[in-house]
């Protein structure tokens, strides 16, 4: 029997942001619902009857989730953790907001691993 080690997340990082995270998750769900309504209104939802249309809709939701997930993550990370990781949270937030997919990729490749290392070193 092998035990897995999960490092504890300090209370200062986890606790103050739990309500904010719940609110932002609800906002993300509302945005996804609005996109679904817009797809149906403009007849794009009928594309789901074919396999190509289904792939396009799944790709749309994947891109939307990638964009919203990355942006929400930049909002909920405390400023002290950004400083400890030597990264600029405002810059990454604006980059993700202005260039949704292209901004999320540098965040996921550069800032997120640095933030994880900084959180584990606390």
Content of β-strand: under 5%
Low-confidence blocks of residues: 11-17
Distance from N terminus to C terminus (CA atoms, Å) equals 29 Å
Average predicted confidence as pLDDT: 75
**Strand-pairing-aware structural class:** mainly alpha
Assign an overall shape: elongated
SSE series: HHHHHH
Major sheet description: none
- The total count of helices amounts to 6
Q: Approximately how much helix is present in the residues?
A: over 70%
**What Rg do the Cα atoms give?**
18 Å
The structural domain count equals: 1
Please tally the β strands and state the result: 0
Describe, in short, the structure shown.
By secondary structure, this protein is mainly alpha-helical.
């Amino acid at each position: 029997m092998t035990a897995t080690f999960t490092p504890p997340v300090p209370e200062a990082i986890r606790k103050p942001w739990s309500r904010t995270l719940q609110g932002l998750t609800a906002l993300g769900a509302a945005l996804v619902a609005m996109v679904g309504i817009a797809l149906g209104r403009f007849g794009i939802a009928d594309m789901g009857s074919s396999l190509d249309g289904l792939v396009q809709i799944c790709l749309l939701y994947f891109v939307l989730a990638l964009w919203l997930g990355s942006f929400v993550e930049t909002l909920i990370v405390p400023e002290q953790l950004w400083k400890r990781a030597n990264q600029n949270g405002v810059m990454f937030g604006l980059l993700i907001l202005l260039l949704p997919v292209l901004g999320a990729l540098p965040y996921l490749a550069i800032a997120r691993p640095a933030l994880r290392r900084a959180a584990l070193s606390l």
